[in-house]
Amino acid sequence: MRIAVTGSKGQVATSLIERAGPKLEVIALGRPAFDLTDRAAVLAGLEAARPDVIVNAAAYTAVDKAEAEEALALRVNGDGAGHVAEAAERLGVPLLHLSTDYVFDGALDRPYREDDPTGPTGSYGRSKLAGEKEVARRCENSVILRTAWVYSPFGANFLRTMLRLNETRDEVGVVADQRGNPTSALDIADALIAIAARVKDDSSPRLRGIFHMTGSGEGTWADFAQAVFGEAAARGRRSTRVKRIATADYPTPARRPANSRLDNEKLARVYGLRLSDWRQSVAASCGRLLV
After folding, report:
1. Rounded distance between C-alpha atoms, residue 176 and residue 262, angstroms
2. How far is residue 255's CA from residue 181's CA, in Å, rounded to a whole number?
3. How far apart are CA 11 and CA 115, in angstroms?
4. Considering the domain boundaries, does residue 118 fall inside one?
5. CATH of the domain at 37
6. Does residue 93 lie within any of the structural domains?
7. How far is 56 from 38, CA to CA, in rounded Å?
8. 191 burial via Cβ count (<10 Å: 0-12, 13-18, 19+)
9. What pLDDT digit, counting tens, does each position of 213-258 carry?
10. Span 63-113, pLDDT tens digits
């Protein structure tokens, strides 16, 4: 199987490349040659890759910066997703498109299901919702996968930031009133490979549409940080305390959802997939980085 993944330097693309076994070839496409906002480049790049399945993991992800750059975020996450969907439709191959919990407003008191009303509160969420709509409109042979709180041993992410702070800080203030599902990009990659193998050979409409895909279990950002610091201390690093603070104590340009939890039962029911418990995956990533 041959997978073309957009966003060559991102956490998901890097994880897919690492997880590729002898029967899987991953072609990573990224800037400057492959720019989501350039329709001709997207169509040409994906045609040249000759994929069996396309994974659209590239995105504008600067959540706070998007508040001042919504037009750019929409071009990348909305129009760009549409370009990838057009290419998939032209090539007649399935598209797996990654989206986000930010398409919801975070006001529910339970994990969000796929059919819950969307209502993004910021520019980033609006741009990702626009992308979902473009993918659904342009490519019936698509699977939209919403995930959240992504981390890995690669790139810039919350886990790596906490490990960096652990090197010099005895205490770190971390928000404790936002709940979500920390999700390993390596676990995402494993799930994407399994989903790709299914949709490549099975045209059932049941396998298409919107699914939620996050790590099992839930916690706050403060819980996430505490788990990271615990792994660091267990490996002889500095003992860093978590100071639990409110969202109001850490203002940001973009409003974060108080509830980012996603319900993954549809993914389990249709594909038989459940991602690992987030604490186990955090331990695995920390084990790789703390050597």
Report:
1. 18
2. 18
3. 27
4. yes
5. 3.40.50.720
6. yes
7. 15
8. buried
9. 999 999 999 999 999 999 999 999 999 999 999 999 999 999 999 9
10. 999 999 999 999 999 999 999 999 999 999 999 999 999 999 999 999 999
Strands 25-29 and 209-212: unpaired
Count of domains in the chain?
1
Q: How far is residue 15's CA from residue 269's CA, in Å, rounded to a whole number? A: 25
Q: Which amino acid is at 57?
A: A
Q: Which two tokens stand for residue 129?
A: 């919702």
Tell the residue number behind the tokens 């104590």, with chain if given: 249
In a domain, 141, yes or no: yes
Q: Which helix (H) or strand (E) holds 243?
A: strand 241-245
DSSP for 153-164, please give it: SSSS-HHHHHHH
List the catalytic residue out of 60, 102, 112, 124: 124
| Domain membership of residue 19 as a residue range | 2-151+183-215+261-275
- Is 69 a member of any domain? yes
CA 261 to CA 113: how far, in whole Å?
9
Query: Is 250 in the active site?
Result: no
Give me the DSSP letters along 43-104. Answer: HHHHHHH--SEEEE------TTGGGT-HHHHHIIIIIHHHHHHHHHHHHT--EEEEEEGGGS
Q: How confident is the model at residue 261 (pLDDT cuts 50, 70, 90)?
A: very high
Q: How confident is the model at residue 32 (pLDDT cuts 50, 70, 90)?
A: confident
How many Å apart are CA 35 and CA 131, to the nearest integer?
Answer: 15
The predicted pLDDT at position 160 comes to: 98
